[in-house]
Amino acid sequence: MNPDITRMARALNEWLWQHEFWLPPGITWEDMKESEDIHYPQPRDLLLSIPFALILVVIRYVFERAIALPLGAKLGVRDKQRPNAQPNPILETFYSTHCKNPKESELISLAKQCDLPVRKVERWFRRRRNTDRPSLSKKFCEACWRFTFYVIAFFTGLAVLYDKPWFWDHRECWTGYPQQPLLPSLFWYYMLELSFYWSLVFTLPCDVKRKDFKEQIVHHAATIFLISFSYCANYIRIGTLVLVIHDASDCFLEPTKIFNYMKWKKTCDRLFMIFAAVFLISRLIIFPYTVLYNTYYYSMEIFQPFFGYYFVNALLITLQLLHIFWSCLIIHMVYKFILQGTMEKDMRSDTEESDKDEEKEKVVEKEKNGITCFSNVTSSNYIQRNGSETLTNRAHLTNGHVKER
């Protein structure tokens, strides 16, 4: 390797791992060295999360096809038959390179290029977008996998933290910080959660995309940064509280989706109301007090601010802003439910837009056909009424010919 590149890499590594970034004033990496009896978090441990994440991806693949897909079929989850778009190189090129939802002027231009009516070009794009949208069985399988993981992760977190003092007294998060030994149970709990969020990043291109896709990416990135930095800076105690609080509401969100895909409307509505209550309480009340206030205020009783203090708080505030964003969506859906008595469809999903347009188009065609049919019926009745004399003055011969009387 080039010596200059080696020197630059070494200088970057030394700069990145300065103890001023990661540890409180007065503490160096020498103070965090391990012994036979005491183990501290080591940054290199985080590399294990990558192969574990790939293992989770494989487990998910097997789970969805061997368990979730057959389960969905037995519970009546059926994919809607959608008409495919006819092959058209010009429209396909525009769809792939420009945009998936062209404006009216673009539709007119494309219609001229293809020598097709604008309505057919519009229908082609609608059906092409439908092809890219996930099927109902895919969404069901994804919800089943996430539900399974969140339940396992949440109860694992409770089992790990139940006998820990900081779970009951949040000031204990900072007792002895940063020289807090790493327990094996905390290590594996952290690896489980970090590996799962890495697996979500790896499967992002294949997962169901909703309107809050960008917010989901920000959420995954903030979570991975938060877990990784909190591990390196030994913020593990506060990090475990963040993980448990997040998993609590997710345990109710995924089954709500599952029952929605199964068309169990009443069960879905009840579960959503439970989810909304747990989410709003855990994310807007418990999280700010247990985590944000704890990290921002109580930690100052132990050490002076440093880079890690500001960085962790910035990540936690980012998560809280996302909580507020999703809370607004949830409150809006609950408000609609109170007014209408039925739950509005997921505001983050845009999978129904094209189907509604297709239905509107069919209704228009039916109305046109109905008018034509009605005019035919009235015309025949008119003939029968006004042409009765002509008809009665005719006699049918046995050979089928008509003879005038």
UniProtKB/TrEMBL annotation:
The keyword Zinc does not apply. Residues 74-135 form the Homeobox domain. Gene3D superfamilies: Homeodomain-like. This is Ceramide synthase 4. It comes from Aythya fuligula (Tufted duck). One of its GO terms (cellular component) is nucleus. It comes from the Eukaryota. PANTHER family: CERAMIDE SYNTHASE 4, LONGEVITY ASSURANCE FACTOR 1 LAG1. The gene is CERS4. The lineage of its organism: Eukaryota, Metazoa, Chordata, Craniata, Vertebrata. Pathway: Sphingolipid metabolism; Lipid metabolism; sphingolipid metabolism. It is a multi-pass membrane protein.
